[in-house]
Amino acid sequence: MIDKFLPRLDKCPTGIAGFDDISGGGLPRGRPTLLSGYAGTGKSLFALEFILHGIERYQEHGVFISFEESPKDLAVNVASLGFDLARYQADGQLRVIQIELEPQALIEAGEFDLDGLFIRLGAAIDAVGAKRIALDGAENLFAAFTDMRILRAEFHRLMRWLKERGLTAIITTERGKDALSRHGLEEYIADCVIALDHRIERELATRRLRIVKYRGSAHGSNEYPFVFEKQGFSVMPITSAGLSYAVSSEQVSSGIVSLDAMVAGGVYRGSSILVSGTSGTGKSSLAVHMVDAACRRGEHCLYLAMEESPDQIERNMKSIGIDLAQWRRAGLLNFHAVRPTASGLEMHLAMLTRLVDEISPKLVVVDPITAFATGAIDETVKLMLVRAVDLFKTKGITSLLTCLTSGGTAEEATAVGVSSLVDVWLTLRNLEAAGERTRGLYVSKARGMAHSNQVREFILTNAGVRLEDVVLDEHGRILTGSARQFHEELTRAEQKVSAADQERRRAALERKRHVLEEKVAVLHAEFEDDVRALDAELEREALRVQASGRALGDMATQRGSGQTTQHTPR
Amino acid sequence: MTDPKMKPTQYVLRLYIAGQTPKSLAAVSNLNRICEEFLQGQYEVEVIDLLENPHLAEGDQIIAIPTLVRKLPEPIRKVIGDLSDTEKTLIGLQLKPR
Fold this sequence. Notes:
The complex is a heterodimer of chains A (570) and B (98). Helices cover 39% and strands 24% of the residues of chain A.
């Protein structure tokens, strides 16, 4: 990317999930980074994880200087993440030092510097051979002393000193009202500045991380949601790989043969499918077919039930002949019931990430995604969904998201917002005609595959979903439900009538042929008679000629002397 | 305190410095001057050079240099700087009300 035009900056990986992706490899190595945020946004945890991952994964020892929390509290905080601070310290990989500042017990009487601090840091750094250091809550130094002139100079010297020693450092600071730090620390730390934020939008708490500045490096400039999880701090980027995941050309069945036929034989593995529709159009029913089909192939499925309890879904789906309980027992189907508003969006994303890692499903169903939003799907929710879909794609997981639409003229407005994220979009809608409601299904979009443009009638039977071919009446209107049945009966009856008619016409023709043949026979007979009559006449004539010849001969004998018919001409 | 029958309060003072810097040297001489003037015969001073004994900085939570720590009488008090401001030094040692 832009990186290649700039001199490559050596990066120091933090080991924090997601962060190294958005920062192009981590923090600037050998330089200090300012981490700014309001109280409780997770600055200390970020800094501590940076140090501990350094020890665990990158063989870089570390020093953690706390200006606020006691080492005991810190140890408790990270114990739940599986880090044992005492062990690292005993092994000589880590030093944790608390700097206690008691401004009320301090009087300034003349020139001073912070050599005491430098000496303590130096001793700790040397003791473990540290490559990483965190100064957590360093701005407290400014509160402890009154001579700001000295403090500024000393802080500046401290940053230079850390650089000279080649340490990759994180300095955390509480965010000021209008500035990144209360004491303008960003003036001293120019290489990299990261801001953490925690705000509440639409009753959903969301934590965000933003790289405000990163000198000499390209970096993601978005605000990235982050969470604290069992495994610690976790930033949710759209992976830096972007859209370059491997795609599969393997097609998988939706569990409904007639639906597979509508999308050229099945959806691609790893694709994302959106099923939108108003309430009661059969979105979940469609989803469980896909689940059922996947489980039959022995694939693991993750079903996030956002509105109904798993038991309720199982019971309901039994009525259309799908036994989900067997897959649950077989350990193939993992239901996960979530109350969408119970936690922030980034928390859901983190949970999804964790579940996907744990279960390694081939299919994930989120039913419905609309439950993430309290109102319409806004940018925040969309962003989260982008990341979720991205997560699935990078892992080659087929995903099915259902989307509840509100109906009306702008009925698919919600779905439209999300549809750009997905590869296949199936729309279910109620078709009302002749006082009856039926369900219709059509393929709104199917990336990279030939697909049917027809609306199909979507019928729920006790043996699953069936899609009926579309039936049009003489005006080109789609007929569904009993109207379709009536139309079909009518057509059958008409066919019956025309069959009888044909039979009759065939019989008439047959008769005609009979008559014709009789006529031919008569003519033939007459002709035969004529022939015979002619023959008889010819015979008679021949006999007559013979008879007259004989009579002439007799006459010559009578008149001449032995010479027959001799005339004496001259 | 000035009651002759009572044993005069004993001051135990510790001055932290870091090498022979001008600030450190100034602090040592300023402290000697103040002690002689205000605490004659009732003080002990220990000067600790953290460059020689860096680990000693932890105990008294030393950040600034020079730092003068009043170990006794309790409570512990700290005065930082080269002690060129006698007034503030006396306040810090609670030899003078604020």
